[in-house]
Amino acid sequence: MKYLVLVFFFFFASVTQAQNHVYSIYEVFTQRYRPILKNKSPLALLTDELEAIRSLGFDAIRLLPITPVSQKDGWASVYKQSNMMALSQNAGNHTDLIKLVKKAHQLKMKVILEWIGHNMAMHSALVESSPKFFLNDKEGKPIPNVWGGAQFDFSNEKVHDYLLKTLKYWIETYDIDGYRCDVATLVPQRFWEKAISEVRRLKPETTFLAEIDNDPESSWSQVDPEYEKLPNKDPTERLLKAGFNWVYDRKLQKVFIALKEKKIKQGADAIWEELERQSKYSVPNAMMHFTSNHDYNPGQGPSTTFFGPANATLAALVHFLPGITLTYNGQEFGLNRIISHDEIGEKVLEQKKDESLLFLYKTLLKVKKLFPINKKSSLTSLKRHLDHPDVLVMTKTSEKNQTLLTFFNLSDKEQTIAINDPFLNGIYTSVLTKSKSIKIEGQKEFKLNPWEFGFLLKN
Fold it and tell me: Are 121 and 73 in contact (CB under 8 A)?
């Protein structure tokens, strides 16, 4: 597949970034992705890799669950947590996590932990010691949720107090920087409003990332009696107003999958319409875009095989869009296998890295930081310049008036486009491909191969 990417090394040195700002998150399945060696735990091995991860341009690492898992609950998923305030021995020990966080902070990276606030493993000490913390049947036994866990009873205020205590624990003990909140819509909004406020009194810059499931309205109505009374039931808006920094962009991900499966036509229009919808949220640039993660990998397979020739194109697109990005460990070098949620099993083997893909990710992360996120509106500096069903032609303008012209052929067919917009007139350069300067004056025609994309910086 042919693509053009710009690398402007002379600009990168001048990039300024707020110390606590996050552009890109690297998601790590600690216990499964790095094999446990005789003298080093997964957390220790990850600490050794932090400099390499940072050198690619990632601002934060997001650890999947590192809490102990119940081995009595059948499916040994890392999400079957048995203790919310302890480290799994399969992840590492107290000192390992302390060193990881310290090293990350030295590199000016954030450490974001997984936090599961809606259920516990059926066989856990908390279920035995505090049965009233959970929804029970007539016989007083916990009612299993869809994952087989014991679901918290949020009508019990002591549950709120306990969960808040667990959020504070990891900050007070390890100085972690934030939480990725699993299925945040299975926890009432009033808890989030209080908890996020309380946690930020402890550490003001704490970040909160909300995962929403594929049917968030239904999830929230199950646990929040006030849900039906609210005039605005949009889950994303409610989470942002509760204090979350970012929310998973499930809807755009569905568009990507539909494009791959050829279930929609006019993919460019569908993506732009979703961006316009997202721009109306009260907190701009709050969507977290991705092409794969720990949930999609087991079901679809690695993004390289699932998206095929569209993989690099969609990766480039998510790094160009307003908001932040998430990369699943291995995506950046072409991970070629599935990583299951099981804690017990074969460890992921080493593989040869796709150096061209690795360089592409590094470039995309650098280009993203050339255009700091606009705090006023997600579409303030983003413009669409061509009405075409399959090709997106967009520009992004920085506060220093740098203009980045991008084009994405979102189809498996060759496309010929003609742009004629006075705003685009000028000289553009593509450094990576070592091509000559491109001049746009009046109408300019481009022929695009299937899934071709390009980044052109205006001189």
Answer: yes
Select from 377, 393, 426 the last residue of a domain: 377
Per-residue pLDDT tens digits for 30-55:
876 555 556 788 899 899 999 999 99
Measured CA to CA, the distance from residue 53 to residue 51 in angstroms comes to 5
Amino acid at 91: A
- How many domains does the chain fold into? 2
**Which residue has 């067919």 as its token pair?**
413
Final residue of a domain: which of 377, 410, 432? 377
How many helices (H) and strands (E) would you count in the chain? Answer: 15, 18
Q: Cα–Cα distance between 179 and 176 in angstroms, integer?
A: 8
Q: What torsion, rounded to 10 degrees, do the Cα atoms 43, 44, 48, 54 define?
A: 30
pLDDT in tens, 91-101: 999 999 999 99
Q: Phi and psi (nearest 5°) for 273?
A: -60, -40
The kind and range of the H/E element at 304 are helix 303-306
| CATH classification at residue 424 | 2.60.40.1180
What is d(CA 410, CA 391) in angstroms, rounded to the nearest whole number? 6
Structural domain contains residue 9: no
Whether the CB-CB separation of 189 and 226 falls below 8 Å is answered with yes
Whole domain around residue 373: which residue ranges? 19-377
What whole-number distance in Å separates Cα of residue 133 and Cα of residue 155?
Answer: 9
| CA dihedral sign of residues 196, 198, 202, 204 | positive
Rounded to whole angstroms, the maximal C-alpha distance in the chain is 77
* pLDDT value of residue 19: 36
- Residues 207 and 110: beta-carbon distance below 8 Å: yes
Strand partners, 409: 391
Count Cα neighbours of 383 within 13 Å in the Cβ-side half-sphere.
12
Secondary structure, 3-state, 323-354: CEEEEECCHHHCCCCCCCCECCCCCCCCCCCC
- pLDDT tens, residue by residue, 398-422: 777 888 999 999 999 999 999 999 9
Q: Distance of CA 173 to CAs 102, 106, 211, 338, Å?
A: 12, 18, 25, 33
Cα–Cα distance, 400 to 330 (Å, whole number): 34
Residue for token digits 């087989």? Answer: 148
Place of tokens 């499966």: 261
Confidence of residue 73 (pLDDT cuts 50, 70, 90): low
Average pLDDT over residues 269-296: 91
Mean pLDDT for the chain overall: 87
